[in-house]
Design a protein that fits this description.
The structure holds 2 protein chains of 2 kinds. By secondary structure, chain A is mostly helical. In chain A, 78% of the residues lie in helices and 0% in strands. Chain A is built from 23 helices and no strands. The longest helix of chain A has 50 residues. Chain A is globular and about 65 Å long. Chain B is mainly alpha-helical. In chain B, 91% of the residues lie in helices and 0% in strands. Chain B starts with a helix and ends with a helix. Chains A and B meet through helix 3, helix 10, helix 11 and helix 15 of A and helix 2 of B.
Chain lengths: 490, 57
């Protein structure tokens, strides 16, 4: 495959990797307690929080699916980003749910649920969070590897080796330094990532041109390329599903909420949300523009059905040597910050909530840290295995939305009820968890089975997702009202 | 100038403004975060070190 990637670019990437590794490993000496490992001792201030949240929520996988959205849906593909930015701004300004959550001084969301719904609900919440989170993260490695292989012009056989090396690299500093390493490396990664994104975006806008890009979208998708309600693959169901999904993600996505929990106080957590909110528009629109540029510049037959790979195939010949090194370093930065934060986040739920029943006799801090490190290593191994065999069907953003919904639907219902509805109780919580998990898991299964594949297409992921959120909410209300009133007074 | 700008932005002014906003956001926030984030890291590590010293004493 033709590419401009040379030894100069390789050197830039190598230098960046060494600097990250050194910074990540250096802070390990500050990890003396489990609280340091999981939430950085709650010492995170606003600007470090902005860097960390932005770096965590932008990985190579993000770049790939948002660019795919741009290629497949035009500018309308950035709709989820706009919805998420609005949700994050409102939550940041009002403190809706995140204020009582941070005030409670918990490490994870299920820990808060125990105070209201009891230990069983805490444990079950932990299980669905980890299930949804790991299924979601399972596709990160392969998709990131696809980007690297295509941009760097590597042989396809090197994909597995590339992604394994990347994961091992990230796992080393995450295991040693936990959240402290994640925050420090996120800071470096945010700067490198921003530099790469800016340089390439300015090149795309000046060399491909705004006019050529809007013309390409208009000729391929008509008005639907600019208005999500008019796009044939989107419409109101897409917008509504993404609105629900993004509100839930802002409130309960463990990697996002962990920045609020690691903040030095509630006000800092809210400011991190408000200041980072517009980033979520950038997160969808900037790679979306790269996807639109690919739409404008590449012949449709050279892309075929693999629209996920259109953007890297375009960039590998469009971006010149030297700048390509900065781009790859930026994307590696993006991916490493995401992988490290995600491994730590799901690990924190496994330790804090799923293993809670086994920690009835208090563990020493050193034992707690050791167990946390083993959990992060175990997640790394799972990611390698799952990432290698899971065949992705349909578009990537929808897969992430459906797997995320496994927990986002029920956890958002539980969190809102826990904070603001006095009548909410364990029966309602149990109903919401079951309904919230069963519908998306069933959808994923019928999508993979040949005999029911057509049924999955007929229902579609958006209606399935909308139904999950509504029914999870109903289950909470009905379950809570059915339980005798005396038990709700905890 | 106004004519050139309106020709460039065209009928898709919403997306053009949003794109310009994204580039401006990255230009400004990257610089602010690079400067203030570094001092946040320094402060965080100092606090952690002092709390470790206290617990050792």
């Amino acid at each position: 495959m033709e590419t401009h990637f040379t030894w100069i670019d390789g050197s830039i990437v190598g230098l960046y990797l060494l600097a990250t590794m050194a910074a990540g490993v250096m802070v390990r000496r500050f990890v003396g307690k489990v609280e340091h490992f999981l939430v950085a001792g709650r010492e995170m201030n606003v600007f470090l929080g902005v860097a960390s949240l932005a770096a965590t929520e932008f990985g190579m996988v993000t770049c790939m699916y948002t660019a795919q959205n741009g290629y497949d849906k035009g500018f309308s593909g950035a709709t989820p980003g706009i919805l998420q930015a609005l949700a994050m701004l409102v939550v940041g300004l009002t403190g809706f749910c995140i204020k009582p959550l941070r005030d409670a001084g918990v490490i994870t969301i299920p820990e808060l649920f125990e105070k209201r719904f009891g230990p069983r609900i805490r444990w079950m919440s932990g299980v669905v969070i980890v299930l949804g989170g790991l299924l979601n993260m399972g596709v990160f490695l392969r998709t990131g590897g696809d980007f690297l292989v295509n941009v760097c012009g590597l042989d396809l056989h090197y994909l597995e080796i590339t992604m394994t090396l990347l994961l091992v690299f990230v796992a080393v500093y995450t295991i040693l330094g936990g959240m402290l390493s994640v925050l420090v490396t996120d800071y470096l990664q945010f700067i490198v990532m921003s530099l790469g994104l800016l340089v390439v975006t300015v090149m795309v806008l000046t060399q491909v041109g705004w006019g050529q890009m809007t013309e390409a979208v208009a000729s391929r998708y008509g008005e639907g390329g600019f208005n999500p309600f008019l796009h044939e693959d989107m419409g109101w169901s897409y917008v509504l599903f993404n609105l629900m999904l993004n509100i839930a993600a802002v409130l309960t996505w463990q990697t996002t909420i962990q920045r609020v929990l690691a903040a030095k106080d509630t006000r800092t957590g809210q400011r991190v949300y408000s200041l980072t909110s517009f980033f979520f528009v950038c997160r969808f629109l900037i790679p979306g523009l790269w996807g639109i540029a690919a739409l404008a510049m590449l012949a449709p037959e050279s892309v075929g059905d693999s629209t996920l790979l259109a953007m890297p195939r375009f960039l590998c010949t469009f971006v010149p040597t030297g700048i390509l090194g900065i781009l790859v370093a930026a994307m590696l930065a993006a991916d490493m910050s995401t992988d490290s934060a995600y491994m730590l986040s799901w690990g924190s739920v496994i330790y804090n909530d799923i293993l809670a029943p086994f920690r009835k006799s208090k563990w020493t801090e050193s034992r707690g840290i050791l167990v946390n490190r083993m959990i992060v290593a175990g997640i790394g191994v799972f990611l390698l295995i799952y990432g290698l065999w899971y065949p992705l069907k349909g578009d990537l953003w929808t897969y992430l939305g459906v797997t995320g919904t496994i927990y986002l639907s029920s956890m958002s219902v539980l969190l809102i009820s826990c904070c603001y509805w006095k009548r909410a109780n364990s029966w309602g919580a149990l109903g919401a968890i079951l309904v919230g998990a069963v519908i998306p898991v069933t959808f994923l299964v019928i999508e993979q089975v040949d005999a029911t594949e057509e049924l999955a297409k007929w229902i579609g992921p958006y209606y399935s997702g909308i139904a999950t959120y509504i029914l999870a909410g109903l289950a909470m209300v009905i379950g809570s009202l059915l339980k005798p009133n005396s038990d709700t007074k905890r | 100038m106004g004519e050139m700008l309106s020709g460039l932005v065209g009928e898709h002014w919403f997306w053009a403004l949003l794109t310009a906003g994204c580039v401006l956001w990255y230009c400004s926030v990257t610089v602010i975060v690079a400067v203030r984030g570094a001092s946040d890291i320094g402060e965080m590590l100092r606090r952690l070190a002092s709390s470790q010293d206290k617990s050792l004493q």
